[in-house]
Amino acid sequence: MLCLIEATLPTFLSITISGDTRIPFPECITQIFFYTFCVGTEFFLLKFMAYDRYVAICVPLRYTTIMKPNLCFMLCSIAWFVGFCNSFTHAILVSNLFFCHFQEISHFYCDLKTMIELSSSDVTNIETMVSVECLFLGVIPFLLTLASDICIIVTILNIQISAGRLRAFSSCSSHLTILILFYGPSLSSYLIPLSKQSEEQNNALSLLYTALVPTLNPLVYSLRNKQVWKAAGLLMKRYGKC
């Protein structure tokens, strides 16, 4: 999530402060690479986190047997490897497209979808690839994550002890919040054709999952941390005495 912020917002802040809206083509391709890498990797990491929560809540006695360090390392490696291959392919394809000498990007970063629309080359192949990518890297992981979350919710509702039900729900509520905020805008931004949504809507959706969600991510996950609450209480007491 932090890498996603670093891939998009520094350029946006630089343009806002300096007023210089120019961005060289190599920098634009680099931004596309890191942006698609972060988004694609995040899709898989959220799915693997959902699987981890599923095992922890639905089959807790087998958690240590299933979620071994080797398996966790392998899942993370798969997410990073698939994200790298996907982003590298997109960067190569976009770099081979033909653009006019100067183009105005109606966005706050070099968005892949916007760059494809600006190209004067035949973009049929890359548009098909983006659609297939959204299906296999976005929709299918989202449906699998949703299925595991439904199993988790059913298991939580079947817990007889209210304290245990609350503890189980709190362990997955943070993940559910980030899941909805990240998957919803990102998939909507790329699944809805650009002709059927305004530039303002596209920019707003992009800003939501590239800036707002990564910013809220540490806050959402820290709300269930007792040490964070304890530290916040101490700070409130300290400033209350001042």
Amino-to-carboxy terminus distance? 36 Å
Helix share of residues?
over 70%
Order of helices and strands: HHHHHHHHH
The biggest sheet amounts to: none
**Any low-confidence stretches, pLDDT <50, length ≥5?**
none
Give the overall form.
globular
Decide which structural class fits the backbone: mainly alpha
Q: What Rg, in angstroms, do the CA atoms define?
A: 21 Å
Provide mean pLDDT, rounded: 75
What share of the residues does DSSP label as strand, in percent? under 5%
Q: What would you say this structure looks like, in words?
A:
The chain is mostly helical. 80% of the residues lie in helices and 0% in strands. α1 runs antiparallel to α2 (25-58) and α1 packs across α8. The longest helix has 34 residues, at 25-58.
In short:
The protein is mainly α. The chain has 9 helices and no strands.
List keywords for this structure.
242 residues; globular
Helices, strands, pairings?
Elements: H1 2-18, H2 25-58, H3 63-66, H4 69-95, H5 112-118, H6 124-157, H7 162-191, H8 199-222, H9 226-241
Helix pairs in contact: 1-2, 1-8, 2-4, 2-6, 2-7, 6-7, 7-8
